[in-house]
Amino acid sequence: MGDLPPREFFSPRHHPVCLLAEGLAGAEGVEGPPAVLVAGGRIQALGRAALEAPARRLPLPGLWLTPAPLDAHVHLRLGGAPEANLTSALSAGVAAVRDLGHQPGLATPRGNRQHPPWVVNSGPGLGAAGEGGCWLAQPLAGPGAMAQAAWERARAGAGVVKLFVSGLLDFDRVGGVLHHLALSPDEIAAATQAAQEAGLPVAAHANGPAAVEACLTAGVDSIEHGFFMGPELLERMARQGTAWIPTCAAVAAHALDPEGRHDQTVRDNLRRILAGQLEAVRRAEALGVNLVLGTDAGSYGLEHGAAVFREMALWLEAGVKPATVFRAATSRAARLLGLGQELGEIKPGARPWLLGVPGDPRANPLLLAEPRWRSF
Ligand SMILES: [Zn+2]
Questions:
Q1: pTM above the 0.85 mark?
Q2: Which of 188, 276, 339, 345 is deepest in the core (most CB within 10 A)?
């Protein structure tokens, strides 16, 4: 990624500005009016303290200020060139993406931390050699090789280690997974321990109960996809505090099938798979699972940036509370990406990557799709 020139508003060189909004979402305990003081490329103060500081005032009548959303699961090397995909994410107002795996041997897209979207990357995933391996992962065999690869990712500057524990969904069979457990429990445990010792969280591609259970036993930080895991494992995720990124939009895109890749039977299966996953998401919310919004953008029919709002719309249709959807795309996603101090909330010290929307996005998170004002 080349360096983009700094946009004036969030540049550290910008003069202090006090944003005066109708309301603030994603801000806690603000005293006084909904005002946000930005200076030096950071949010400096909120409420009365913001209003009292010497700064140019920028009124945003009728608009609520909100942190921009994040996408916790994308593939920047799929669905177009990484540069173009980052531009799509930026134009959709996405503040950060987590890039979870690309073909080994290709350069890892890195982005630029001074400008949205911030990129947290895994580099190529860690997967099985031979049967059950994934083309987005380095093929590895044995706990020693898995641990070593996790250390290598940390040294290469990755922000997360991605494991491909199971295969993909079998679209010919509702409930079917190709390669239930492509990595052994010992391999999963070795990679997880090495990654976490190196200070990196572990994101595990896992479908079906065998893969999800092995990942939860190893103590991974997030389950990606997690189709067909069943209610007991949802309860266990809630108990352990494991994040779940259910990537519903990816299956919905396959079911829509814009290029006519599937026959009618497969499209019907996909609709049933999606309905089951949405039911599980609703149940996960009730159980208190740490649901985080991610999309699998770059996979078939799923555009970077816009995918965030397709995922939101599906959760809302499933009956997930709007406030949960909002948090899943902002504060929870930022924490999972290790950016809890930088993004996802309006608070002193955080980056001012904000959107202005005509209403409270905790009541209607889809307002984030059409901001009337943005700081970046
Ligand atoms: Zn993926």
A1: yes
A2: 188
